[in-house]
Design a protein that fits this description.
Layout lengths: L16 E8 L9 H17 L7 E8 L4 H13 L5 E4 L3 H11 L5 E3 L12 E3 L4 H16 L3 E7 L2 H13 L6 E8 L6 H14 L3 E5 L2 H13 L7 E4 L4 H7 L7 E5 L8 H18 L14 H15 L8 H9 E6 L2 E6 L2 E3 L3 E6 L2 E7 L2
Parallel strand pairs: 1-2, 1-3, 3-4, 4-5, 6-7, 6-8, 8-9, 9-10
Antiparallel strand pairs: 10-14, 11-12, 12-13, 14-15
Keywords: Signal
Pfam family, one: Peripla_BP_6
Protein name: Aliphatic amidase regulator
Length: 375
C-alpha cells in the first residue's frame, strides 16, 4: 500500500503478536514521567490482551527512549519500521520528537501521539489524542479571570515547538478579551543554572503580572517551582500550568506549590468509577513493572496525566483496528471521526482534533484538588 506521498507501508511478517514502538522518555527533563508512562502502557496492553488482543494478537512493546535528540529518536523508530519490527507507534513524548517521527514514518504505519500538544498536526496516519491549547489553556484562563479576577499574565516555557506554539495559540485565543499577556521567556530544555532562573524571576517581577503561565517540562517545572517559591513570589503571584501533573507536584515539594493551578483532562482525584478503576489498575501495573515497595507495600505514585494519556493512546491504537492489526487506512478513517471512552471521560476526535473534558485543579501541598470543569 502506498501513501499520498509515494511512501510504502512496510511488509508485515506473519506472527502472533502486535508489535508497537513505545516511545517514552527515559532521561532529560521529561524522564521524570518515564516509569509511570511505561506502567500505564503495560496496563493497557494487559487489558487489550485479556479482551482477545488486537485481531487475536498479543500486544508487545519495542521500547524507544524519547529522551535524546529528536532526530536520533526518529531514526530509531524509522529503522524499526523499515525492518518490519513494529506494526505501529505510540507513546508519550515531546512535540519536537513527534514532528521528527512523523516525518520519518508518516503514511507508513499508524502513529498515535498521546501527549497534550500545540495543535495542527496533519501528517498522514498520525492521530494526536491529547488536549490542545484552546480547550485547556484558554478555557482555564477565562475561568481564572471570572472567578479570581486574574487578568495579566507572563509566560515562561521551554524553547521548543510545544511551548512556543501554545503561547502563540494562547495569544490568538485571547484576542478581543481583557486578558493580557505581558511578556514571555523561553529557556532551553534541561536548564539547571540557577542564574538562568534568577533572570526569569527578575523579568517576572519587573512585569508585575497577576499570574505566570508555565509551559515547562518535568524537572524544569520542578526547578522553576522551587525557585519561584524561594523568591517568595508564590505569596502574591498565581501560577497556572497545562503540563504539570501529580508527579511534578510531588517532586516540587509542598513548600513550592502554593498558589498553583493546573488544567488537564485527567487528575487522580476525579470522582468516577472509571477513574478509580484506572488508578487501581495503574498501581498494580506499576508495582509489577518497577517492583513493589518495602515489605510488600505498593511503591506506586498517583497516576498523572502523562500516564493516563499513554494508557488511552494504547487503547486508541488498538481500537481503530478493523479486521487486522491497525493500518494507516484505519488511522485515516479515525482522523476524520472517532470517539472513545477514557478514564477521564468520553473523547471525540474530529478532523484530527481531540476534544476532552478538561478540569482545573489547585495544589494543596503535594495533593491536587479538582475544583472545576472548564470544558
Amino acid at each position: 500500500m502506498t501513501d499520498p506521498a509515494g511512501r510504502t507501508e512496510p511488509r508485515r511478517r506473519s506472527r502472533s503478536d502486535f508489535r508497537v514502538a513505545l516511545v517514552l522518555p527515559r532521561r532529560g527533563p521529561a524522564g521524570i514521567f518515564g516509569l509511570e508512562c511505561h506502567a500505564a502502557a503495560e496496563l493497557a496492553a494487559a487489558e487489550i490482551d485479556a479482551a482477545g488482543g488486537v485481531a487475536g494478537r498479543s500486544v508487545q512493546f519495542v521500547h524507544v527512549d524519547a529522551g535524546g535528540d529528536p532526530a536520533a529518536v526518529a531514526a530509531t523508530v524509522r529503522d524499526l519500521v523499515d525492518s518490519g519490527a513494529v506494526d505501529a507507534v505510540t507513546g508519550w513524548h515531546l512535540s519536537n520528537a513527534r514532528q521528527a517521527i512523523a516525518r520519518e514514518v508518516g503514511g507508513r504505519v499508524p502513529y498515535v501521539y498521546a501527549a497534550a500538544y500545540e495543535g495542527g498536526e496533519r501528517s498522514d496516519g498520525v492521530l494526536c489524542s491529547g488536549e490542545v491549547p484552546g480547550d485547556q489553556i484558554i478555557a482555564s484562563l477565562r475561568w481564572l479571570r471570572t472567578e479570581l479576577r486574574l487578568r495579566r499574565w507572563f509566560i515562561v516555557g521551554n524553547d521548543y515547538v510545544w511551548p512556543r506554539g501554545s503561547a502563540k495559540a494562547t495569544r490568538a485565543g485571547l484576542e478581543g478579551s481583557d486578558i493580557a499577556i505581558l511578556g514571555e521567556r523561553f529557556l532551553p530544555l534541561g536548564v539547571d543554572d540557577e542564574r538562568a532562573w534568577d533572570r526569569v524571576l527578575a523579568d517576572i517581577t519587573a512585569a508585575d503580572p497577576d499570574g505566570v503561565i508555565t509551559l515547562l517540562v518535568g524537572s524544569d517545572a520542578v526547578r522553576f517551582n522551587r525557585a519561584f517559591a524561594t523568591a517568595g513570589l508564590d505569596a502574591t503571584v498565581t501560577r497556572f500550568s497545562p503540563f504539570t501533573d501529580e508527579t511534578v507536584v510531588l517532586a516540587s515539594g509542598s513548600a513550592a506549590t502554593g498558589n498553583l493551578f493546573i488544567s488537564a483532562g485527567w487528575f487522580a482525584g476525579l470522582a468516577s468509577a472509571a477513574a478509580a478503576e484506572f488508578s487501581a489498575g495503574f498501581a498494580r501495573a506499576f508495582d509489577l513493572v518497577n517492583g513493589a515497595g518495602p515489605i510488600g507495600e505498593s511503591a506506586a505514585p498517583q497516576p498523572g496525566t502523562m500516564a493516563e494519556t499513554t494508557y488511552s493512546g494504547v487503547h486508541l491504537l488498538a481500537g481503530i483496528a478493523t479486521t487486522s492489526v491497525p493500518t494507516v487506512a484505519d488511522a485515516r478513517r479515525a482522523f476524520e471521526d472517532w470517539g472513545w471512552d477514557s478514564p477521564h471521560g468520553p473523547v471525540d476526535l474530529h478532523r484530527g482534533a481531540a476534544r476532552h473534558p478538561v478540569h482545573l485543579a489547585v495544589a494543596r501541598g503535594v495533593e491536587l484538588d479538582v475544583i472545576a470543569r472548564v470544558r
